[in-house]
Design a protein that fits this description.
about 20% strand; Rossmann fold; 16 helices; alpha/beta; six-stranded mixed beta sheet; about 400 residues; 14 strands
Length: about 400
């Protein structure tokens, strides 16, 4: 398959490049830095060599005086390389070190803060619609997600089916992150029902029959493995009493669909709605990461029940985004946005839906969700301009 150009632009200094397995970190570094000195710690023999002798990296770099770029793939496999890399960055300021990783857990434990100021933290996300271009198919992406490993497979369903088990086997069990693999597997199924919803750890605990404290540690493991993230409540200058609970999202809507059990008792909206909201959220999250400006993503929910799915706030402005899986618009769809507008009249209100027409209704821009996703580009602001 043809290489898909990514919208992520590398910084002009050494950096970490985090991202879940299959997001294309290795392929991207090979494409952008073809002449780099490479160390692939996923190779068993290479992993053994550096685990026993991390100073080997210094020997390799010093043997290549012409070397300008060094790539270490899956650096969390040998955290001891961080101190070696730190000393090399100080000694050779003209050399750029790119450290990729699919888990922040070991690195946090080993002290990534050691690299503060020496290496920036960057993230590579699943494909954005603008990266796929003409190949972007909303229905297909809602079913299989947009992880490059899955998108480029001739059998995406089979790859997705094995994706969670890959992490369970290689990251969770091998690293000894959980004592009971069966409990963690039940947790993965139970937590899938929380995708796009306010996270209630007690409910998840009951569903998978695992203690609440253990469930909390499992959620942290998912976050450390970059498989999930929590969305805090927007409460800046709040005029109403707000809830305190974060929303929960798996990092890719295809992974959500693969973990979420479904059957004749499930209505389409119970799965399709959270999948669409998750897809929009992961796109805005990628846009924020690649744009490199001070923007953050939230949700908004009052104790009185008013809510907005996504709120983006920062240098680019204040945006309230509601996501509906319907092709038609109902009066009830605008309630949350109207309540938000009362508290934040300067905000831009956007309703994304499955219809075909772009409309301006009562100060709310209604956009086809595909048009919005295709228009997201880190070089520009959110694609929500309209005549007023």
């Amino acid at each position: 398959m043809e290489y898909v150009s990514r919208l992520f632009k590398p910084p002009r200094q050494s950096f970490f490049l985090f991202g879940p397995r299959g997001t294309g970190k290795s392929l991207w570094t090979e494409r952008i830095f073809p002449a780099a000195l490479r160390v692939d710690l996923l190779q068993p023999d290479v992993h053994r060599q550096f685990l026993s002798h991390p100073e080997r990296l210094r020997e390799m770099v010093e043997a290549r005086p012409d070397c300008r770029t060094v790539v270490v793939d899956e650096v969390q496999k040998v955290p001891e390389l961080l101190s070696v890399t730190h000393s090399l960055i100080n000694k050779y300021p003209g050399c750029c070190f790119i450290l990729t990783g699919s888990s922040a857990r070991k690195l946090r434990r080993a002290g990534v803060d050691l690299m503060a100021g020496r290496a920036l933290n960057c993230t590579l996300h699943p494909y954005m619609a603008a990266e796929l271009g003409a190949r972007f198919d909303l229905d297909r992406v809602l079913t299989f997600g947009s992880i490059p490993l899955v998108v480029e497979s001739p059998d995406p369903r089979a790859v997705l089916a094995s994706y969670a088990s890959l992490y369970l086997r290689e990251e969770v069990q091998m690293e000894g992150l959980v004592r009971n693999a069966g409990s963690f597997a039940r947790f993965l199924e139970a937590i899938s029902f929380s995708h796009g919803c306010v996270l209630n750890l007690s409910n998840v605990s009951r569903e998978c029959q695992v203690e609440r404290k253990t469930v909390e540690s499992y959620v942290q493991i998912l976050e450390d493995l970059l498989l999930a993230w929590r969305l805090p409540v927007f409460s800046l200058r709040a005029k109403r009493e707000m809830t305190e609970h974060s929303k929960f999202f798996l990092f890719d809507c295809g992974v959500f669909r693969s973990l979420r059990p479904s059957g004749p008792l499930d209505c389409t909206e119970e799965i399709a709605g959270p999948a669409l909201e998750g897809l929009v959220a992961q796109h805005i999250r990628a846009w924020i990461a690649y744009r490199g400006r001070d923007n953050k993503l939230y949700h908004w929910r009052t104790r009185g029940g008013s809510e907005v799915d996504l709120v983006c706030y920062g240098e680019d402005g204040l945006f309230a985004v509601e996501v509906k899986h319907s092709a038609t618009l109902q009066a009830a769809d605008f309630r949350g946005l109207r309540a938000f507008a009362e508290d934040y009249p300067q905000s831009v209100k956007v309703l994304l839906y499955r219809g075909k027409d772009k409309l301006l209704r009562d100060g709310v821009l209604c956009m086809p969700v595909s048009e919005f996703l295709m228009g997201l580009n880190p070089e520009t602001g959110l694609p929500v301009e309209c005549k007023t």
